[in-house]
Amino acid sequence: MRKIAVALILVMAMGAFASDIEKDAVMFGSIFSTALNASGKVPFKVSPFIVEDYGVFYFVHNPMRERMRERVARRWKRMPAEKKKEVARKLREKKGEMVSRIREGIKRGIMAASRYGDVLKSVPDNYWLVFVFQSPRSIGSVSYPCMVVKVRMKDVRLFSKGKISEEEFLNRIILPPLPEVKKAPPSTK
Question: What is the pLDDT of residues 35-66, one digit of tens each?
Answer without folding.
Answer: 887 766 667 788 898 999 999 999 887 766 66
